[in-house]
Amino acid sequence: MQYSTDGRPKPVDEACELVANRQLAGTLWDMELRAPQIAARILPGQFVHMKIPGMDGRILRRPFSVYAADAQAGTLRILYQVVGKGSAHMTTLAPGRVDDIDVMGPMGNPWWLPEGAQRVLFVVGGVGAAPLAMFGEQLRQAGVGLDVCMGAQTADALVMKEHYERVVGVEPICATDDGTFGHAGFVTGPAGDLLQGGGYDLVCCCGPEPLMRIVAGMALEAGVACEVSLEKRMACGIGACLSCVVDTVDGRKRSCVDGPVFDAGKVVW
How far apart are the C-alpha atoms of 210 and 216, rounded to whole Å? Predict the structure, then answer.
């Protein structure tokens, strides 16, 4: 396997087979791809850049977080939400398409664990639960304590709840905007209570930008390191087009190559 100068596996361009494409709830779908080269290389928090078949009029690729990868089976899975024509077209793709979905990956920087960290808090919102799933498995295998706070608009949208329950061993603390499951209101409520209790070495957050901004502030107040995965629109995915820049205290950074995982304390919110 070839590595970049920073130690990350070099991305490859791989023609993939669509293994499954399942509707989970409402606008949320789960896609499984057979991509042996990427599945063997990808690290928690990295993403793939996909060229969607049947959309020749739209030449730009689309970034998707990988929430599960099986190197032995050569497969990876993405959670996606239908928000426009491209993602709506993705729901029409059927298994059995061989060498028809062109995917670049793994892309971007992974999550990182501070040296000596023993306890981590995840705060996720909506499809933001996906980018942290593999990192959660890695932490548990390493014996690191993990608590998960998960938010969504409604109970049906908590599609990653069972996954995290298997990883952590207990049901994650959930919050729904409409109060149909768990805490009634935003996930920042229970997350803030846990942070005030102390004992965490790291907070990891992914979701809508307002959520990440609030969680970054709470972590800073609690004196806990915080990482965020910033969801930005990307065009090239290789740092050339500058369409996904993030303002930081160290200047403007590209989410596709300098992120998507950033030190929340360096992001200019």
Answer: 10
| Residue recorded with tokens 């090239």 | 236
Contacts of 162 (CB under 8 A, 6+ apart): none
Its pTM surpasses 0.90: yes
Residue 60: burial class (beta carbons within 10 Å; 0-12, 13-18, 19+): middle
**Are 150 and 129 a contacting pair, CB within 8 Å?**
yes
Which residues are bridge partners to 152 per DSSP?
A: 176
Distance CA 7, CA 28 (A): 34
pLDDT digits (tens, 9 = 90+) for 105-143: 999 999 999 999 999 999 999 999 999 999 999 999 999
- Segment 220-251, tens digit of pLDDT: 999 999 999 997 777 777 777 888 899 999 99
Both tokens of 169, joined, read 């061993």
d(CA 160, CA 184): 18
Distance CA 24, CA 22 (A): 6
The pLDDT of residue 9 is: 72
The residues with which 16 forms a beta bridge, in sequence order, are: 101
Dihedral angle computed from the Cα positions of residues 187, 192, 193 and 194, in that order, rounded to the nearest 10 degrees: 90
